[in-house]
């Protein structure tokens, strides 16, 4: 194991612990996409089916158990313990748009046409897009708590460090895993703009969202994506752009402990 792999695992663990700490300490899962957490639980479940059949190392086994336990603990807190605070009205990303193509790719692109290999491939592909409901939710509401941005940062850092791990292994061991590398690069791309805005947040984020460009062409595209990917549920008295956050920028920017979401501009 190299330093990049270890640092990536630590970053991944820190991200999950930050999320759990946020939910437990605030007694609320507001702003957290339950759909993303269910997808991550599905990722770990399908990836670690070899937990009791293949032994690699004590570290590997312990980390598998920890990630499985923490992912299901997160789902439990969102949908059971603190379900009254779950924002289901804004967590409306249609996950079938992710699951259907991922399932198809898993059957078409794999290293062996066996159940375990197909499920492992499925988990790799699904992990690359599992964060989409969370990013979509932030886009729709137009804001995110600071602790949520820390969670996203460490989650993206974990994948970026894994790319460095693959580069290192290729040069030192000749190891090359096309499926994992391509999926990892795709996943990291989703975080690129977020990394920049995480470091330069504040006035930069406010300026991006309040700019004429963000309220014009890109804002319209964001509204289209939100409408297209949302579950078909909408109150008759709800304005067409409700929840996008464009009409409450000053209040959101000034709210202590929260930052305005960059995603209506940067991702969509």
Automatic annotation (TrEMBL):
GO biological process: one example: protein retention in ER lumen
Predominant localisation class: membrane
User: Which domain of life, per UniProt?
Assistant: Eukaryota
Q: What is an example of a Pfam family matching this protein? A: ER_lumen_recept
Q: Which InterPro entries match?
A: ER_ret_rcpt
Name a single GO cellular component.
Golgi membrane
Keywords, in A-Z order: Cytoplasmic vesicle, Endoplasmic reticulum, ER-Golgi transport, Membrane, Protein transport, Receptor, Transmembrane, Transmembrane helix, Transport
Q: Which residues cross the membrane?
A: 62-80, 118-138, 150-168, 180-199
Q: Where in the cell is it found?
A: Cytoplasmic vesicle, COPI-coated vesicle membrane; Endoplasmic reticulum membrane; Golgi apparatus membrane
* Family annotation (PANTHER family): ER LUMEN PROTEIN RETAINING RECEPTOR
UniProt family annotation: Belongs to the ERD2 family.
Q: What is this protein called?
A: ER lumen protein-retaining receptor
Organism, scientific name: Xiphophorus couchianus
